[in-house]
């Protein structure tokens, strides 16, 4: 049985869409082509986020016939609502990947992870996407000696592999961020920032131009395997047949694939944006335009927008927001880091849903032949899912397992998943209290 659509979440999320910071490209045109019923295609992609659209784009360019089916509008999920930080790498350092996956697989993973930011900025450049972007690097800011030692280790490992990375002194990180409370960090010059909504919409445009047919506001409700193909049915009563199906809903996964939604913990990422900063303040906050994430257990991330606002995000409440007070923890974090922003108006508040896996790695699954699913971005979704989509498209076209950077694993639901969110909420509250003691 499929789990019911979370209509309350969709409605509450839609109410915040108009409050977000990101922009629809001025020349954006509708790309939707409604389902006709009875279609036969090589590939159906369920979900029109970054990974789904990247998969569709690259599969269409490989000559596959492609249908994308999206339950909402393009950009309504986390792909269009995230912080727009394009960060390469994974949560784990290169040496750990080799130790955990072995020399051969580990080196392939390192090479894949190292190039995820390149995939985004190269696509924007070569396709001339109408996406605001800047590639000025990313800073992981350390607030304790332990965190600084971890940053030094990470920078050393990537530098040994040719990455232009460096450690920042207390004075350097203060100058680059303008924030209080950090004692150093590491600076990765591969990274940058984009407008994620514009990027997702532009991916939809070029995927459609490549031949992928996209249907929006159409929810897939059932997948059945028959005679070597997949029958895909929707809530609107339409159906089509595909050789391969890619489930690309990530944090919005429901009961379409049995057990998949129970392999992740969905969390809410809340974000705020100030009014455009006065020049006297703006010149001292992120003068180089870098993106920043910090080392706290419940991390804070921030960047500037093209029109001079400070955007700051972090974990929000587990339940849905009810009022502006649900973003108050971010406002407190902002003025703690930047006391000069006391009294500056908060003009945007929004949130999205993200997926966390227990081991903090992306997971690839193929529970039946020709049914592929990917979940778990771990805060690096823009670059990771752009790159992963291209690899999944290659796999769909060639069936070569070497195309996939991560090993395909069985679907293993988290034990007592129903209670996991309660435990995570308690852990977040505890970690936030510990973070407060380490200011």
From TrEMBL:
GO molecular function: oxidoreductase activity
Listed Gene3D superfamilies: D-Amino Acid Oxidase, subunit A, domain 2, FAD/NAD(P)-binding domain
Claim: Flavoprotein is one of the keywords in the record: no
GO CC entries: cytoplasm
Keywords: Oxidoreductase
FAD dependent oxidoreductase domain span: 42-394
Pfam family, one: DAO
Record-given protein name: FAD dependent oxidoreductase
Organism, as annotated: Mesorhizobium alhagi CCNWXJ12-2
């Amino acid at each position: 049985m499929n789990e019911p659509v979370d209509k309350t979440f969709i409605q509450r999320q839609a109410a915040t869409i108009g409050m977000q910071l990101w922009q629809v490209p001025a020349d954006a045109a509708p790309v939707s082509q409604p389902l006709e019923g009875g279609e036969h295609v090589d590939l159906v992609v369920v979900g029109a986020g970054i990974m789904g659209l990247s998969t569709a784009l690259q599969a269409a360019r490989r000559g596959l016939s492609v249908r994308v089916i999206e339950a909402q509008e393009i950009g309504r999920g986390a792909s269009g609502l995230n912080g727009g930080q394009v960060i390469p790498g994974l949560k784990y350092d290169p040496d750990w990947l080799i130790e955990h996956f072995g020399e051969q697989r580990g080196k392939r993973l390192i090479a894949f992870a190292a190039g995820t930011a390149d995939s985004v900025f190269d696509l924007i450049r070569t396709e001339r996407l109408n996406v605001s972007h800047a590639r000025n690097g990313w800073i992981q800011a350390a607030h304790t000696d332990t965190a600084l030692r971890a940053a030094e280790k990470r920078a050393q490992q990537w530098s040994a592999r040719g990455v232009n990375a460096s450690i920042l002194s207390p004075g350097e990180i203060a100058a680059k961020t303008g924030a209080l409370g950090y004692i150093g960090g590491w600076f990765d010059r591969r990274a940058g920032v984009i407008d994620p909504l514009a990027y997702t919409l532009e991916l939809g445009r070029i995927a459609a131009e490549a031949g992928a047919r996209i249907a929006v506001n159409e929810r897939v409700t059932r997948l059945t395997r028959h005679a070597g193909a997949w029958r895909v049915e929707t809530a609107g009563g339409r159906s089509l047949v595909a050789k391969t199906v890619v489930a690309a809903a990530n944090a919005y996964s429901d009961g379409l694939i049995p057990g998949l939604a129970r392999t992740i913990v969905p969390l809410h990422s809340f974000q705020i944006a100030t009014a455009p900063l006065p020049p006297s303040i703006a010149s001292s906050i992120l003068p180089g335009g870098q993106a920043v994430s910090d080392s706290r257990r419940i991390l804070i991330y921030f960047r500037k927008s093209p029109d001079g606002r400070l955007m700051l995000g972090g974990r929000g409440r587990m339940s849905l927001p009810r009022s502006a007070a649900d973003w108050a923890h971010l406002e407190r974090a902002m003025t703690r880091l930047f006391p000069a922003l006391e009294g500056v108006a908060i003009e945007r508040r929004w949130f999205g849903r993200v997926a966390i896996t227990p081991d903090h790695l992306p997971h690839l699954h193929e529970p039946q032949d020709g049914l592929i699913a990917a979940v778990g971005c771990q805060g690096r979704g823009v670059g990771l899912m752009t790159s992963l989509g291209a690899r999944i498209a290659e796999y769909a076209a060639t069936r070569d397992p070497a195309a996939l950077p991560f090993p395909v694993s069985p679907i293993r639901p988290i034990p007592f998943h129903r209670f996991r969110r309660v435990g995570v909420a308690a852990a977040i509250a505890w970690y936030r209290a510990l973070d407060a003691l380490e200011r």
